[in-house]
Structures are given as structure tokens and as C-alpha cells.
Amino acid sequence: MPEPLHTLLPRLRAICGEDGVITDTARRRTYESDGITYHAALPGVVVLPTSTAQVAAVLGLCAEHGVPFVPRGAGTGLSAGALPHTEGVLVVTSRMRSILEIDIANERAVVQPGVANLDITRAAAPHGYYYAPDPSSQQVCSVGGNIAENSGGAHCLKYGFTVNHVLGLEVVTPAGEVVRLGGKAADAPGYDLLGAFIGSEGTLGVATEITVRLMRAPQKVRTLLAAFETMDAGGAAVSAIIAAGVLPAAVEMMDALSIEAAEAAVACGYPSGAGAVLIVELDGPAADVDAQFEEVAALCRAEGAFEIRTASDAAERARIWKGRKSAFAAVGRISPAYIVQDGVVPRTALPEVLRRIAELSAESGIQVANVFHAGDGNLHPLVLFDDAEPGAPERAAEVSGAILDLCIEHGGSITGEHGVGVDKACHMPEMFTPADLETMDLFRGAFDPAGIANPEKLLPTPRLCGERPGVRKGVHPLVERGAAEQF
How do beta strands 45-47 and 69-72 pair? Predict the structure, then answer.
């Protein structure tokens, strides 16, 4: 452990308690990465605060001594956004998991950052309400992490991202000051600091209390699974549904390779021989849902669906969603290693981009499984490779980077919901001009002039600008200077 951290240990223990400070090497390794394990770093020290006051005291101590800190939630992120700093403090909010208030009269809930996303819905369900954002990891991902990455999910087509459902935050700034942004009211005057903080990836401070919007549970929900011979046919069905004026709660698509993985992992029982499956979910007033459901089924048949399944109850809905929700982890059943990518294109560009991804795959010999939010063009290509095969990791990284280039070329973005973190920081100059990036850095500096809040994330640094994201060629600069380990 670096010497400056040794001198802070007694004060950190006084703040968080003996069991709230982790210095043991084996236990610190638990926190060395998020969901992208090929970026790993042993944190200098791990603290587990249980209150806003403790977070403020820890960050104030870091500011006093110029020690960097990294916020971390449940560790389910997919951009290396919570990669620890080897000479810093990892602030883990997993013990701050109280639901402080369910305010049905105002359709609000107030929670701590360590609360699992799905637990808000469970708490609100007896009152006929739910929390709309639903990342695929919603059973385990924390609301604080959702705030950091502005997480999305299958239902963001109709209901939007985390930012559309958060009304207020209690935030601890990098100086250790506690401030409030927004509240239970629908809006507040002045600059949208709340919107700026959501999606800032821990670079502006730590959210310690979150006020979210609750929505009344829909009168009816119906889910349909349609199987197609090709991805093009499935894509044509998506276009037809949207063109008909139907706004589903979710429109998800999986290709043959991702279906194969899901079958191997969870035996989801999707139709045999499908080149693509489309999951469409509708919710709202019963009469509207029933009418739109028949229309969607007819449109899918018109575009060549050879089998359509419908869910008659919650259990059948869960079975239809099982394969889609497990897709990322399931790929591990058919590939020794893979890169989870996350890019966005306009919905109309999906057919061309998917064809180009197939060409990239064929040219490189690297398989790509496609799972995506078809309704809003959010792609999640899973780039598969054998890390024991010479040259395979490098080819996979090239394909992964080329997919992001395709997204930008077609008017999209390098991330839809996973964030930038370390993994995609070097792609930021492809989307933004130097003046854009400088302005972002100035804004970041206004919150964190000392540069201690989650350093080396989100914005590119001169050291990283020439690199590609993903499995890296050669030695990563952080590894070279002893600040991280790479496996």
C-alpha cells in the first residue's frame, strides 16, 4: 500500500469503523474490476461507508491530502468506469442500501445509492407502482451505479433512461461538501446540474441519496416473441411496427449466435432454426394493448415471422425474457472470452450497420453475437474470441473498435448506456472536437479542480489518445507505471 494511504488509515477507520476499511490484499482483489475484467487494478484501500456523513468525511480527507478516490456501486458496470486507483481510495456504496421513503401521494421514492434497482419496484408494487428503468442486471445493479452511467434497459424505448426518472440527488462533492440538486418537485430553475451529474461516471462526486419518480403499474402488459429466418426480416418488422404508430414498451432482438448462447446457458426454448427473434412488449390501458398487440402480431407475420408466441401471464413473460436477460453472461458458454460492446445508431441505419458487422466478422474470422434494443438502435455486439489463440485478442479488439467507428459513421454514438469509463475514453475524440472536450474538462474541473474524482475516466488523456479500447495491444500505460494490472 502506498505510504500516503498508510497515514490515512487511522482516520478512515475512525470514520467508517474497523470493518468498513479493507486493507487485506486478497479482500481488496474482490474490487479490482467491474464487469469488464480485462481492466483490473488493485485498489489502494477500500472503504464501505454507511451514511452521507461518512462519505463526506472520506472525500474531505482525500481532498485534504490530495488522494484520488473512485466511487463504486455493485460492480456490474461494463466500461471499466469503477476501475480502482492503486494509490487511492475506493468508495464502495454497497452498504448504503436503505429505501428511505416510498411517497405514493407524490409518486416518488427516496433511496440510498446501494439499493438494487429492482428493489424499488418491489417496495412500490404493493401500492400499484413501479420504477420504470430496467437494465438487464436490475436484480443486482445499484441505483447509484445507474446514476453514474445513466443506465438504460429494454424499456427505455417508451420510458427513457435513468435521467428521465431521477428528480433529486444529495451529492458529496470532491471537496467533501454535501449539496442537493433538484428534489421532489418536477423541475427547478437554473442550469441543469442534475442532468449533468447523471451520467458523469463518478467524476463529479458521489450521490448518497436519490429521489426517483414512481409510475403507476400499467393496467395490462402483453409480450410477444416472433421468430424470423433472417435479421433483415426481423429488422423490417421493427420498422413496420414503429411506422404503424405503435410505441411498444420494449422491442428487443437477438441473432442466431446469441440465441445459441442463451439456449446453452438457460434453456430458454426459443423457436428452433430462428435466424433472429424479436421480443415486443406492450403495456397500458387494456383495450389499447389488446388492439395494438393484434396489430403487432399481424405486422410480424407480414414480414415473414414463421412462429409467434404470446405470454398469457407473468410466468410466461418471464420465460420469454429469460434468454434476452441472460444473453451477456450466456455467451461465456460458447466462447472462452468476449468483448461486450455498446454503440447506438439511428434505427433506420440498423440494417446497414448489422450487415457491415457481419462483413467485419467474416473478414476477421471473429464471431460477433448481436443482442440489441432494436426499437432505439442501441447495439450490444458481443465480440467472441479465444484468448489462448495467438493474435485473436488483437483481432477482436480491432473488430470491437471498428463497430464503434461504424456507429459514429452512421450518426450514432460510442455508448448508449454502458458509459465511457477507461474502455472507450480514446474514442471520445472521434465524436467530439478538441474544443468540445476542453469544455467538458472545464466543467469537470469546476466540480473537481484537484482532479481527484475518478481520475483517468471518461475524458481522454494525452497518454491514452493513441490507443484503442478493448483487449489492448502491448502494455497499457497504467500497467507500465505500476498503477494497474492486466490479465
Answer: unpaired
Nearest to 102 by CA among 86, 92, 93, 115: 115
Which DSSP string corresponds to 221-287? Answer: EEEEEEEESSHHHHHHHHHHHHHTT---SEEEEEEHHHHHHHHHHH---PPTT-SEEEEEEEEESHH
How buried is residue 271: exposed, middle or buried, by Cβ count under 10 Å (0-12/13-18/19+)? middle
Block residue for cell numbers 460492480? 75
At a CB cut-off of 8 Å and minimum separation 6, what does 97 contact? 112, 114, 115, 116, 119, 142
**What is the residue-level pLDDT of the chain in tens, covering all 487 positions?**
666 798 999 999 999 999 999 999 999 999 999 998 889 999 999 999 999 999 999 999 999 999 999 999 999 999 999 999 999 999 999 999 999 999 999 999 999 999 999 999 999 999 999 999 999 889 999 999 999 999 999 999 999 999 999 999 999 999 999 999 999 988 888 999 999 999 999 999 999 999 999 999 999 999 999 999 999 999 999 999 999 999 999 999 999 999 999 999 999 999 999 999 999 999 999 999 999 999 999 999 999 999 999 998 889 999 999 999 898 889 989 999 999 999 999 988 998 999 999 999 999 999 999 999 999 899 999 999 998 999 999 999 999 999 999 999 999 999 999 999 999 999 999 999 999 999 999 999 999 999 999 999 999 976 444 444 344 445 555 555 555 555 4
Q: Identify the CA nearest to 205 among candidates 338, 384, 59.
A: 59
Residue with cell 497504467: 478
